[in-house]
Amino acid sequence: MDQDSTIDYRLLVDNLATAILLVDSNLNIFYLNSSCEALFDISLLRAVGQPVLNLLHVPSDEFNTEEALNNSMRTGQPYTRREATISVNFKDIHVDYSVSQLNYAKSYHPLLLIELNPIDRMLKISKEENLIQQHQVARQLIRGVAHEIKNPLAGIRGATQLLARSLNDPQYAEFTDIIINEVDRLRTLADSMLGSRLLPSYELTNVHEPLERVRSLIANQTKKKIKITRDYDLSLPEVFADRDQLIQVMLNIGANAVQAITENKEFFVDHQPELIFRTRIQRLVTINSVLNRSAVRIDIEDNGPGVPEDILESVFYPLVTGRAKGTGLGLSIAQNIMHQHNGMIECQSVPGKTIFSLYLPWESNHVAK
Ligand SMILES: Nc1ncnc2c1ncn2[C@@H]1O[C@H](COP(=O)(O)OP(=O)(O)O)[C@@H](O)[C@H]1O
Ligand SMILES: [Mg+2]
């Protein structure tokens, strides 16, 4: 049977990653697609009829956007602007955009079609790709070192046990015990450097369930001395994920937050320590250079002193730690697990507000690597 080849063009336009605006002859917005809604953080309903200059022109811009648009409208002459500044929610972002006339029926006034490409996102993608690559090289190095450490440990342990048995003297037992305990400590460390060897088993998971597990673990551990606020969007869809691994990720991040709070008591002289667990749907997220239409976002926020500034950029790298007793493995392992889920972790941190956000795409993440 022939496949029906009629296409709903509205659907097509709404699924484009490019932001598209249509403007009428009064330079008012006539239509915008979903990507454009996301770019300007405005809904179609609110935007229609508004002057497009409100979106496309910032006062500091010397370029006369109004004249250029009117000119294009009159003459049909297309034009392109590179690295134009637009303002979204009081934040400057940079876009390339091209303007062309859309003459869809002789009897109607023409419309202007404006296609916008944010360049900040592209800058961000290449930065992100770079980070991921460096991260992978570092992880391989770490795994190599961990294997080299682990291999002789079994031999040392076995030999020490034999030695203890053949000496059979409590005087020496103290020393052989020290060797065995230290070897065991090293082995645990090497294991955590290697990360989990189990292949993840993905199943449909409601992320609130592991999150609640972690919340009650932390509440018990801290004897309820830290306030934990829940701010959940209970309508979140289920995602394909390995539940135990998600718990590990949330625990690693939660433990860091708890440590940042309990190890810096002087920071809390005039306010209460607090953790916030938040869940949301996030639209249009770029993860590992793939643009996802929507993702589940899980925030673990604390009001501690924040990630030390000198390690903020490299905080997900293995062996980067800001604590005397830290190993610097927690976040690296967590980020690795999230990559295996086609997701990622992001961090933003200033003193008093640190947020680690986990992103899990939910439309396509069951094809996880
Ligand atoms: N919520 C947080 N607040 C302040 N600093 C943090 C937070 N989370 C992580 N960090 C910093 O990031 C470092 C790396 O964390 P991690 O990879 O888990 O290794 P470790 O906990 O062993 O040091 C921590 O040592 C700490 O300095
Ligand atoms: Mg840690």
From TrEMBL:
Query: What is the organism lineage in this UniProt record?
Result: Bacteria, Pseudomonadati, Pseudomonadota, Gammaproteobacteria, Moraxellales
Q: Residue limits of the PAS domain?
A: 5-76
Catalyzed reactions per annotation? ATP + protein L-histidine = ADP + protein N-phospho-L-histidine
Q: Which domain of life is it from?
A: Bacteria
Report the protein's function: Member of the two-component regulatory system NtrB/NtrC, which controls expression of the nitrogen-regulated (ntr) genes in response to nitrogen limitation. Under conditions of nitrogen limitation, NtrB autophosphorylates and transfers the phosphoryl group to NtrC. In the presence of nitrogen, acts as a phosphatase that dephosphorylates and inactivates NtrC.
Whether Magnesium counts among this entry's keywords is no
Give the gene that encodes this protein.
glnL
EC number(s) for this protein? 2.7.13.3
Q: What is an example of a Pfam family matching this protein?
A: HisKA
Q: What's the protein name? A: Sensory histidine kinase/phosphatase NtrB
Which Gene Ontology terms cover its molecular function?
ATP binding; hydrolase activity; phosphorelay sensor kinase activity
Q: Which organism is it from?
A: Acinetobacter faecalis
